[in-house]
Amino acid sequence: MDLIKLINKYKDEISNDSILIEYNLFFSEDVKKYCKFVIDEYEELEKLNNVLLKLKELDKDIEIYVCTYGVDFIESEIHIYGDTLWINTKTELEKIYECFRNCRIVEPSDIVMLCENEGIDGTVALAFSMEGKVENYTSFIEKRQINKIKSLYWD
Questions:
Q1: Tens digits of per-residue pLDDT, 66-115?
Q2: Are 63 and 87 in contact (CB under 8 A)?
Q3: Burial label, 150 (beta-carbon count in 10 A; 0-12, 13-18, 19+)
Q4: Per-residue b or e along 55-89, where b marks 16 or more CB atoms closer than 10 Å to that residue's CB
Q5: Which of these, 151, 27, 155, 51, lies nearest to 104 by C-alpha position?
Q6: Nearest Cα residue to 71 out of 15, 29, 33, 125
Q7: Which helix (H) or strand (E) holds 34?
Q8: What proportion of the chain, given as a percentage, has pLDDT over 70?
């Protein structure tokens, strides 16, 4: 799936809104030069991935998305910036905090339930999945229980 072509296709719908990109898609090798996460050092990303693996052990049905804060269309290039993870999981907040306790270097600044402040990450336009599926936010959120989505933010 070509994320960059898809994002270009939906350029008008994205405008100044955030988008959700499935974690493995955001960090895939073929879009690495376009996608920048607030944690961008290789060693730190490895530590983050280790924490996420622990969370996957706690919940096999977990879904992880990067919530962007910017998609810049500059001439023929795209730059996508993310600083937040949306984790759809049954795992309680305390357990998530616990997973990060042993890895302070990549600990988020804040972890909140999305249902407590749905607008915390701004307006989300679309969600992009590994399978190439593109959903508008309303459709995406209707298929999940918003009270299971945790927002992990780094500043």
A1: 999 989 988 888 999 999 999 999 999 999 999 999 888 999 999 998 87
A2: yes
A3: buried
A4: beeeeeebbbbbbbeebeeeeeebebbbbbbbbbb
A5: 51
A6: 15
A7: none
A8: 95
- Mean pLDDT, all residues of the chain: 91
Q: What is the largest CA-CA distance in the chain?
A: 44
Phi, psi of 67 (to 5 degrees): -100, 120
Residue that the structure tokens 């990109």 belong to: 21
Rounded-to-integer distance, Cα 66 and Cα 88, Å? 12
State pTM to two decimals: 0.92
Amino acid at site 96: I
CA distance linking residue 141 with residue 146, whole number of Å: 7
